[in-house]
Design goal:
480 residues, globular, alpha/beta, 15 helices, binds nicotinamide-adenine-dinucleotide
């Protein structure tokens, strides 16, 4: 077996199988074939991983290291990720049919996550509060301890790096459990951490299913922080389990993003981003613009352009350089998305283009749906696939009401050339991020997270610092 067809746990700087020798199959959804196996973590493996990270935190050099030295070690890991960028991208492509160019983009952003937080922790060390009382007060942000990080399969490397990077940059040690659907790239990242010289236990990788591997990790009372990205249903379980030992949680959950195109939008720009927002990564994006609202006055013109652009997307083998859209990440997910698409007709909706592929692939073509009642599951629930449900609107008030009428609140988009309207509507939308005339653009200093069923807490820049540290106030008497 080579190191690219078996993905073990990486614990204490070494790759190891599970204690009981258990494994699971790793699939390529495009070829519909098994191409590797991975270690099936159980409670004993989770306990081993936590013990290792605990030791590394309580006794090891990492939390005690100078900030510059820690930053240098993290930059070394980012260097190695960039050197192995095509290998990492190929693992994500093979593992979930992400078009290779998109996987390369994700790897670059993953390495950048490490670089950003390595530097951020050097520049954002604390605040000084001058006091009129003859005292001097300042804050200190010390590491919180052992972090359990759990990530999903849609951006396998990027979502993991988004958690691991701030956790370790702030001096914590971390166990990352990737999704059972996509163990490959995160395991390689764990191997690279060892190669970069990070002390054993600073980044441990635990492979396996949500239950028992993930649940054992979250329930372990030696864990000080839990950062989770995944579905809202699992997020609630994770929060309840972490609450039993009072570990703070950061939850980045599902979404049902509203995308509003006003009459005065630049149509070319709006169509370009609307396609990107719902069909990138074959629609498997928490931030997807899955509810589209188009102003009545431009509805026919916009929809003609949108349908044509969706139909022009090159679909195929994710390794083909021209491919921009491919199959869904697994058979299980294909079945889930297909059920929603099959329900459209039954609920009285119309499929303008797309639908489930008939050739036996786990593929749902870029799908655009109209005429669905606002109570239909495909309209209300997160499909997490390439299905865009469209409605027209007459007024700003009406569309803000429609956009906010959801349990989710991760993100929204709006397209308008009217500056006042852009600010006014952005402010009224109930969402963690609002994009105006664009999508998916992100500055790592800004807050990221959702309201309602889309999550708890924010990460990014100082928001990550607050979560991954124990802020402390120090008060000194100056005058006696
Ligand atoms: P999921 O909830 O099924 O799984 C996510 C992770 O949790 C996996 O690693 C899984 O093994 C683990 N897990 C499952 N049960 C667990 C348990 N009881 N205890 C601990 N861990 C457990 O989600 P998924 O299908 O992998 O990902 C898709 C979901 O993720 C979508 O809802 C999507 O919107 C969401 N997502 C959100 C964001 C965001 O930033 N808000 C980003 C990407 C994906």
């Amino acid at each position: 077996m080579s190191d690219l067809d078996f993905f073990g746990h990486v614990i204490d700087g070494e790759e190891t199988p599970s204690v009981d020798g258990g494994t699971f199959e790793v699939w390529n959804p495009w070829t519909q074939a098994v191409w590797a196996t991975a270690a099936e973590g159980g409670p004993e493996d989770a306990a081993r991983a936590v013990a290792s990270s605990r030791r590394a935190f309580d006794e090891g050099p990492w939390p005690r290291m100078g900030r510059a030295e820690r930053a240098a070690a993290i930059h070394r890991l980012a260097d190695l990720m960039e050197e192995r960028a095509d290998d990492l991208a190929a693992l994500d492509t093979r593992n979930m049919a992400k078009p290779f160019a998109q996987a390369q983009h994700d790897v670059a952003r993953s390495a950048w996550n490490f670089r950003f937080f390595a530097d951020h922790q050097r520049d954002h060390c604390g605040e000084v509060y001058p006091m009129d009382s003859g005292h001097h007060s300042y804050s200190e942000y010390g590491p919180a301890g052992v972090v359990a990080a759990i990530s999903p399969w849609n951006f396998p490397l990027m979502m993991a790096s988004w958690k691991v990077a701030p956790a370790i940059a702030w001096g914590n040690t971390c166990i990352i459990k990737p999704s059972e659907d996509t163990p490959a790239s995160v395991t390689l990242m764990g191997r690279l951490a060892t190669e970069a010289g990070l002390p054993p236990g600073v980044i441990n990788v635990l492979n396996g299913h949500g239950d028992p591997a993930g649940s054992a990790l979250v329930a372990d009372d030696r864990v000080d922080r839990v950062t989770f990205t995944g579905s809202s249903v699992t997020g609630k379980r994770v929060m309840a389990s972490a609450a039993a030992h009072l570990a703070p949680v950061s939850l980045e959950l599902g979404g049902k993003g509203a995308n509003i195109v006003f009459e005065d939008a630049d149509l070319g720009n709006a169509v370009r981003w609307t396609v990107e927002a719902i069909f990138r990564n074959s629609g498997q994006v928490c931030l997807a613009g899955s509810r589209l609202y188009v102003a009545s006055g431009i509805y026919d013109e916009f929809m003609a352009l949108f349908v044509a652009a969706a139909e022009a997307l090159p679909i195929g083998d994710p390794f083909d350089p021209g491919t921009r859209f491919s199959s869904l990440a697994s058979k299980k997910h294909f079945d889930k998305v297909s059920t929603y698409v099959d329900g459209v007709g039954l609920d009285g909706g119309k499929i303008l283009t797309g639908g489930v592929d008939e050739d036996g692939r786990w593929l749902v073509r870029p799908t655009i749906v109209t005429d669905l009642p606002l109570t239909a599951p495909a309209y209300c629930e997160e499909i997490f696939g390439p299905v865009c449900v469209v409605n027209r609107f007459e007024s700003e008030d009406e569309v803000v009401g429609l956009a906010n009428d959801t349990r989710y609140g991760l993100n929204a988009m709006l397209f308008t050339e009217n500056l006042s309207r852009a600010h006014r509507v952005a402010s009224r939308l109930r969402a963690g991020t609002v994009w105006v005339n664009c999508f998916f653009i992100r500055d790592l200093r800004t807050p990221f997270g959702g309201v309602g069923d889309s999550g708890v807490g924010r990460e990014g820049g100082n928001f990550s610092r607050e979560f991954f540290t124990e802020p402390k106030a120090i008060v000194m008497q100056i005058e006696r």
